[in-house]
Batch of 4 targets.
Target 1
Amino acid sequence: MKNQLISVILISLSLVSCKKEKSSNGMFNEDGTISDSMMSVVKGHLNDAKISADSIVKSRPKKVNTEVAEEIKSEQSQISNKKFVFVVLKVSEATEIGADYKKYQTKELVSGINEISNYNEDAKAMLEDQIIQEYKMGAWSGNIISKETFAFDNYSSASKKRNTYLIEQ
């Protein structure tokens, strides 16, 4: 590639430096124009240089904007990690309170379905804490016996499972 480029430059320089002088080496015609044979040589060198340059350009790896690539990867990760989540609390609440006794009833409380785009253990814990806090703010004397969290890839699956707790059969 370098040799071809150097030969093209040298030929160009020799052509420019000659001022319509008759040459005995066949580079110029009698009227001072470049001979057909010399023009073919120059065109051949230029064509070879173009082919070499094209192959170099094609073989180079394409640059990708890394910020855009990371953003796309992050969005794909969030989409693939999106979950539809609900929590079931099993609670014990006093139904009757006497001077020396309390009667308790066990209930299952089911939260609404929450869409969490980047679901992980922290997101799960935050949702559970939020549901427990909401329960504690509304209950006077209830105790939480257990909690169970359900996570699904689509809303319809989450709704179907949630309905098993809400609808008696």
Target 2
Amino acid sequence: MATHEVQAVRDAGMWQVFIDGFLVTEVSRWPSVGFVAREWVSLTEEVPSSEVELSIRVVGRNQYIDA
């Protein structure tokens, strides 16, 4: 199973959540970043969320990392 790269960018009071380089959603609270990312990957890959591995990195605004 692959580890997914999650990037979190703080912008205008919200956390933008990128998974493998694609913006998937915005959340208002930091603890929601990992939860939302894990659930998103679980749904798109059809695997239990407990089997999803994430690597979460906070990046600065306009400093997105290409996956």
Target 3
Amino acid sequence: MKSKLIIGNLNSPYLKGLVENLKKDDPNLRVDCLSTSYPKVKAEGIDRVYHNYLSYIWVKLFKKYGGGAWFAGVLCWFILRRDRIHYDSIQLHYVDSLHLLPFKLYKLSATNVSCVTWGSDIFRSRSEPKLRKILLQSDTINVTTPEMKAKVASLMGEDSLNLKKVTNFKFGLTPLNLLKQLSHGRYSRLEMVKILGLNCRADMKIVVVGSNASIQQQHLEIIHSLSNYSFEDCFFVFPMTYSGNPEYVESVKDALVSSGLNYQVLTSYLTEQQNAVLRVVADYFIQLQTTDALSGATQESLFTKTNVIVGEWLPYGTFVDAGISYNTVSHVQDIGSKLSTLSQSNNQSVEHLSNNRDIIWKLSSWESVVSQWKQI
């Protein structure tokens, strides 16, 4: 029986979807997980979840990960675990410097160790020398965009990268199945507005700004630009249900008070259904974060035929190559002008937006991509 160990945050919908779909595709495949954070959700079908309690305690006390605590916990797992299975492969999701110390233990526990880069781990890292050492020890490296591959090459050196097996597997998006159902008109627009608890008229154009509360989403700069234009028939929704910190969320709320916009900030947890409804009801989605690697929120919005506006600086070459239609701005300060123009004219045909739906399904449904992940 083949076996895999997934090391990463099991609370991530991407990892949860990966585990569940690997098991769905091959019930005989053993899939275990060593979670970097205490799992608040349960992944269906997972065979065993290992906990690093020393790391959990460290994070609770100091509000950040500690390399020593993580290593000590992994060492305990390596020595004390009752099941001495030698895995066919270990997938390390999100290449963080805290994995440098225990990396040799990973190598002793599996035939193949794959580093799966997520984008922000390599683009925003402050520990590039440590990341280089981790990547050099890996057997396989997975990147999802040409830009990510170029960054990995700059970290390792082109010659070193050429010695590795490099894969280009993308995460599937579990919400696409639900979005497909909702797109067939299960709810009226008024019902969707009520499900989300939005304080707006159903006939207003709904503009979703960003996908979380991180400062990287550049909410303040976006608000400043939007406030220079009139959007009386638009209602702006700011999903800030995770990431970020309370002080930043309050600064966004303060900026909105004097912006002149019709708006609502969402801070309470959204269920999977509510998230899906938000994608379907949105007329526009603004994605201007500083870095990204094929954002799930962006792909879900494209799937629902939403007019998507992204920053030209984001590495979305995969979308361009696939023939996906979306709008761009060169600078954050241009978003007000761009949205004003789009909201007053329909410059993209329904046919083009409908094509996005088919392309995203082929590109990112688990049905299309899960078999690839069995290879590493």
Target 4
Amino acid sequence: MKNACRSDICTLRGIQYMICIVRNLVRNGQLYYIDVMRNYEKP
């Protein structure tokens, strides 16, 4: 991923955390919510 845009990488990470939340909302919701927000807020 050397040529990947930083914004794209952050978006993909945010999506990855969202998938974890959706798979088990009760257990993973609070655990990954902040990570999702941090990745979507990065420039």
